[in-house]
Amino acid sequence: MAEPRKRVAILVSGRGSNMAALIDAAAEPDYPAEIVAVISNRPGAGALAVAARAGVPTSIIDHKAFASREAFDVALDAELSRIAPDVVCFAGFMRLLTPGFIDRWEGRMLNIHPALLPSFKGLDTHARALAAGVKLHGCTVHLVTAEMDAGPIIAQAAVPVLDGDDESSLAARVLAAEHLLYPRALAMWARGTARLEDGRVRFGPEPEDSGLLIWP
């Protein structure tokens, strides 16, 4: 008997292109996860319409309606508890979460960051990569921990930095890699071929070489 598919909730704040990549991947019958909910902290997020068109239930928890970060996190925790996902995927979710929320969901939260961590944590990653003169840039899927962009790495995709690149052209190349990487990383996590051991992500019993690194 096939293993049941993992239930995934996606948190969004914007247009949701990575969310759409996950939804598309989960539409395949052999994909090991199903997208059961999309939650936005911004009522006008374009991702909500994309998810609705795909038949995925959506909800809005407007962070501006709460007096504190803690109060927002309590509401988000309540909604996630109602949905009961196995995995929570951040897809352009522009909120820093409180330690209490992180403690409750740690080990179940995945994020994609537009840089090859541990380089270029935080914002403006493409501009900083260009300023640093790196020849490789890319994206990273990692587990969410209390320290921003510092959780154990699941998978990475590398892209070249080309002569003549500006922030926009480099961002587009990285985004295309993100759309390939995130579904592969989620699949590995959902199957259990990627798992957390002693603070690092390990792989097995079958190798997943094709999913660990995408070049270019």
From TrEMBL:
Sites where the protein binds (6R)-10-formyltetrahydrofolate: 69, 94-97, 111
Residue sites binding N(1)-(5-phospho-beta-D-ribosyl)glycinamide per the record: 16-18
Pathway(s) of this molecule: Purine metabolism; IMP biosynthesis via de novo pathway; N(2)-formyl-N(1)-(5-phospho-D-ribosyl)glycinamide from N(1)-(5-phospho-D-ribosyl)glycinamide (10-formyl THF route): step 1/1
CDD domains assigned: FMT_core_GART (cd08645)
InterPro entries, sorted: Formyl_transf_N (IPR002376), Formyl_transf_N_sf (IPR036477), GART (IPR004607), GART_AS (IPR001555)
Active site positions, chain numbering: 113 (proton donor)
Domain of life where this protein originates: Bacteria
Residue ranges occupied by any Formyl transferase N-terminal domain in the UniProt entry: 6-186
Catalysis performed (reactions): N(1)-(5-phospho-beta-D-ribosyl)glycinamide + (6R)-10-formyltetrahydrofolate = N(2)-formyl-N(1)-(5-phospho-beta-D-ribosyl)glycinamide + (6S)-5,6,7,8-tetrahydrofolate + H(+)
Keyword flag Coiled coil: no
Enzyme Commission number, as recorded: 2.1.2.2
Site annotation Raises pKa of active site His: residues: 149
Swiss-Prot/TrEMBL keywords: Purine biosynthesis, Transferase
Gene Ontology molecular functions: phosphoribosylglycinamide formyltransferase activity
Task of the protein: Catalyzes the transfer of a formyl group from 10-formyltetrahydrofolate to 5-phospho-ribosyl-glycinamide (GAR), producing 5-phospho-ribosyl-N-formylglycinamide (FGAR) and tetrahydrofolate.
Family from the record: Belongs to the GART family.
Name listed for the protein in its UniProt record: Phosphoribosylglycinamide formyltransferase
Phylogenetic placement of the source organism: Bacteria, Pseudomonadati, Pseudomonadota, Alphaproteobacteria, Hyphomicrobiales
Gene: purN
